[in-house]
């Protein structure tokens, strides 16, 4: 029961160095790399033109870049330690909206995630703390602070409804926090190795987590039970993303392979190779046309777009 | 004994220069001086433990010193008054302390109310005065505190003050540039001021004692530390010949004078290695390492052949001037011969390579060399490894389970907080800037930070045939002379 995805387009040299993050909107994909600039490509034209470059926004390079699913908002984190919030004008141009500075020192924040409405930003940190910020309020205050056992929070997720925050840690821990109560909901066991990506399903019912164990674990958000294990990746899993419908999970790995998993059958339905360098980021594009599309970015400095084969 | 006499010359009653010159020309016994404060040869930037937590290893070597010094802690205003008993004594901390000492001097010069003086804690000689050997096992005696002021009461004291300020300045510049200096280097900087080597040795040790760090944490080492091996000859003016393969474990970095003749006709490549032997800690942790090093290369069966047309050098960490000078002479002599760097995949590895290649990074962007190291850069030095793509090559098995702080058996380790800080600082170097001269360094530092991993050179021992086979095939490929596949396979069993 495999699915066919065809390469639609590849932007070679999309960035001068490793592409660490892709963040799609309905009509664009924002991209970040070891360079200082965010480059924005139009995903509605067949040749995926570069439409905007946010020059020199993080001089030491950008390690995380995310967009809100249903709002014109993005957040970027640079190696210099700053977190910048971006908004898109009606005309489609991206502008800096602000910088998170409330009770935060540069470098405190590692991974970030935005809620679907773009109002909340969750962050992980080197010391294991997990924070939530209200980025639509004046001053972008910190509204939640979760303590963990202090292991480096390599990745963070925020459910689309904003109710849950999840974090994945270097010691293999995965935590789910309830943002309504401000408490730890579940401490999820099972991965042992560094967890490099966590992602909530669109309905916020499932959490996928993956990392150096090369296994993708699916957890039930409400019960905290592990409900499935996807095995097949030969390299560390660096990126996880759910399709809009929640039917498919896209994963990217350090050995440059991307896989598409069908949740219903718990099986891998497609595998693609993106050169021979680490695949840092693999993202579905919001479903705007008939067919599903995803984008891959990694150590080969290129962004490749794939489309589901018709039929 | 001479030691006490000499100490008296240095610190005691004023004596004429005549009697000073009479002091025996022996060197202080490093072992005894260092046994008190300096048991481990840990340099800030090269001794960090790859496998244990940084706090633990950074503090362990001088822990006993701290405890023993506790009583005297209050005595020295310079050694950290108002600070927690054990602040994190990284390189920046030491730099700040030295700057405080120098500021005190400047304050004294600016303000008549302040005396121009430096407070020094010295433990030198105390142990030797123990009348009874049975006390040897007791706690190390408290150090003495003394003030050295300027101009002082006599010429001797003025001289001591001058020596100390100059040493402070030298140590400060070493630390700021993250360069390592031998005590010998320091002495030769101002032989007329320092009079003799032991003066430098003494004050450097006292400075370390005052700051309660080990001497190596001042980036000062005992002696030329580099080793070199290979099929080369140095024909001395006096007719003697030194051969680079004369010792099984390599020869100490030789000084090549203008009048000497270097015969490098058989050398096809030059390899600069970070380490002489596996780090103590790595050995303890995994018992498997110590292969991917200078020493292991020389002891491998492959060396007989490799060494016949190559030259390997290690300065054991951050290079000293002697090693850099020799490499520069080699590069001048045989500029067409490729020179490779083989260092750990961690921020220090890149920083070490950077010191070989560009010298002090702070000066590199200005395209000038510091006055002490004219033209010692090696701009053509190539990075052989370890790089991030070598890590993904190394085989990983499912048995690769959590091994706690000791890291994976494969030799992959997590970055420590210090590593991350260092990587961030290095990303700010001009040479790692977006359009700077070392884009690959920038990328590799970023990849380390992204994955939060590092790896020692030893990781390549996991490859078939081990590191030596990897190195020889890599060198063969780069030389374009032989099939790399063949050399790996044929040596598989031979080596390990």
Automatic annotation (TrEMBL), chain A:
Spans of repeat WD: 109-136, 188-229, 230-271
Any one cellular-component term (Gene Ontology): nucleus
Domain of life: Eukaryota
UniProt keyword list: Repeat, WD repeat
Classification via Gene3D superfamilies: YVTN repeat-like/Quinoprotein amine dehydrogenase (2.130.10.10)
Name of the protein in its database record: WD40 repeat-like protein
Species of the source: Trematosphaeria pertusa
TrEMBL record, chain B:
InterPro entries found in the cross-reference section: Spo11/TopoVI_A, Spo11/TopoVI_A_N, Spo11/TopoVI_A_sf, TOPRIM_Topo6A/Spo11, WH-like_DNA-bd_sf
Ranges for domain Topoisomerase 6 subunit A/Spo11 TOPRIM: 291-461
Disordered as annotated region, ranges: 392-412
Swiss-Prot/TrEMBL keywords: DNA-binding, Isomerase, Magnesium, Metal-binding, Topoisomerase
Enzyme Commission designation: 5.6.2.2
Coiled-coil region: none
Active site: 188
Spo11/DNA topoisomerase VI subunit A N-terminal domain location: 159-220
Catalytic activity: ATP-dependent breakage, passage and rejoining of double-stranded DNA
Family note: Belongs to the TOP6A family.
PANTHER family linked: MEIOTIC RECOMBINATION PROTEIN SPO11
Record-given protein name: DNA topoisomerase (ATP-hydrolyzing)
């Amino acid at each position: 029961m495999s699915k066919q995805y065809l390469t639609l387009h590849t932007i070679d040299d999309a960035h001068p160095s490793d592409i660490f993050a892709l963040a799609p909107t309905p009509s664009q994909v924002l991209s970040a790399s070891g360079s200082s600039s965010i480059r924005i490509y139009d995903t509605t034209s067949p040749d995926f033109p570069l439409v905007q470059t946010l020059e020199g926004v993080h001089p030491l390079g950008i390690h995380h870049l995310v967009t809100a699913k249903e709002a014109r908002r993005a957040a970027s984190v640079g190696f210099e330690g700053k977190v910048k919030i971006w908004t898109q004008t009606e005309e489609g141009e991206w502008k800096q909206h602000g910088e998170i500075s409330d009770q935060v020192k540069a470098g405190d924040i590692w991974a970030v995630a935005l809620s679907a409405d773009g109002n909340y930003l969750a962050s992980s940190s080197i010391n294991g703390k997990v924070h939530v910020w209200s980025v639509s309020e004046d001053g972008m205050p910190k509204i939640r602070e979760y303590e963990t056992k202090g292991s480096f929070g390599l990745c963070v997720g925020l459910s689309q409804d904003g109710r849950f925050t999840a974090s994945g840690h270097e010691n293999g821990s995965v935590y789910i926090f309830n943002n309504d109560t401000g408490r730890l909901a579940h401490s999820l066991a099972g991965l042992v190795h560094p967890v490099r990506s966590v992602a909530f399903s669109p309905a916020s019912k499932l959490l996928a987590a993956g990392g150096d164990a090369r296994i993708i674990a699916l957890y039930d958000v409400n019960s905290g039970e592990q409900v499935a294990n996807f095995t097949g990746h030969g390299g560390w899993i660096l990126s996880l993303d759910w399709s809009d419908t929640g039917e498919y999970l896209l994963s990217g790995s350090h050995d440059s392979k991307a896989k598409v998993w069908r949740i219903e059958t718990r099986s891998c339905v497609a595998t693609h190779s993106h050169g021979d360098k680490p695949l840092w980021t693999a993202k579905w594009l919001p479903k705007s046309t008939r067919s599903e599309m995803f984008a891959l970015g990694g150590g080969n400095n290129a962004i490749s777009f794939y489309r589901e084969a018709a039929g | 004994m001479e030691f006490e006499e000499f100490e008296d010359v240095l610190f005691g009653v004023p004596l004429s220069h005549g009697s000073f010159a009479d002091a025996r020309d022996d060197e202080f016994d490093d072992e005894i001086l260092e046994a008190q404060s300096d048991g481990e040869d840990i340099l800030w930037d090269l001794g960090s433990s790859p496998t244990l937590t940084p706090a633990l290893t950074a503090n362990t070597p001088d822990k006993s010193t701290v405890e023993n010094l506790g009583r005297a802690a209050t005595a020295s205003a310079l050694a950290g008054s108002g600070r927690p008993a054990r602040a994190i004594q990284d390189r920046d901390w030491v730099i700040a302390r030295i700057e405080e000492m120098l500021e005190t001097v400047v304050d004294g010069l600016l303000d008549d109310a302040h005396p121009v003086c430096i407070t020094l804690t010295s433990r030198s000689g105390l142990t030797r005065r123990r009348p009874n050997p049975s006390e040897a096992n007791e706690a190390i005696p408290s150090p003495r505190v003394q003030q050295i002021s300027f101009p002082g009461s006599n010429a001797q004291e003025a001289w001591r003050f001058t020596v100390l300020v100059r040493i402070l300045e030298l140590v400060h510049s070493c630390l700021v540039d993250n360069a390592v200096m031998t005590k010998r280097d320091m002495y030769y900087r101002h032989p007329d001021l320092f009079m003799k080597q032991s003066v430098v040795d003494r004050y450097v040790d006292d400075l370390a004692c005052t700051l309660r760090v080990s001497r190596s944490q001042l980036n000062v080492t005992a002696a030329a530390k580099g080793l070199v091996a290979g099929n080369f000859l140095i024909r001395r003016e006096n007719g003697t010949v030194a051969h680079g393969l004369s010792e099984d474990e390599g020869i100490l970095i030789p000084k090549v004078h203008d009048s000497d003749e270097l015969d490098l006709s058989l050398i096809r490549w030059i390899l600069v290695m970070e380490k002489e032997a596996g780090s103590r800690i790595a050995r303890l942790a995994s018992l498997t390492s110590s292969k991917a090093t200078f020493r292991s290369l020389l002891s491998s069966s492959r060396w007989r052949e490799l060494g016949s047309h190559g030259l390997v050098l290690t300065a054991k960490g951050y290079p000293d001037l002697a090693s850099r000078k020799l490499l520069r002479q080699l590069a001048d002599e045989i500029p067409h011969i490729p020179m490779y760097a083989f260092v750990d995949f961690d921020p220090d590895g890149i920083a070490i390579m950077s010191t070989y290649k560009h010298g002090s990074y702070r000066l590199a962007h200005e395209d000038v060399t510091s006055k002490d190291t004219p033209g010692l850069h090696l701009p053509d030095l190539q990075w052989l490894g370890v790089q991030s793509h070598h890590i993904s090559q190394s085989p990983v098995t499912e048995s690769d389970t959590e091994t706690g702080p000791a890291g994976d058996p494969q030799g992959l380790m997590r970055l420590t907080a210090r590593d991350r800080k260092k990587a961030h600082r290095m990303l700010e170097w001009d040479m790692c800037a977006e359009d700077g001269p070392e884009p690959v360094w920038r990328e590799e530092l970023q990849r380390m930070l992204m994955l939060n991993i590092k790896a020692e050179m030893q990781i390549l021992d996991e490859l078939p045939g081990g590191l030596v086979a990897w190195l020889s095939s890599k060198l063969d490929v780069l030389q374009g002379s032989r099939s790399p596949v063949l050399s790996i396979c044929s040596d598989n069993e031979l080596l390990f």
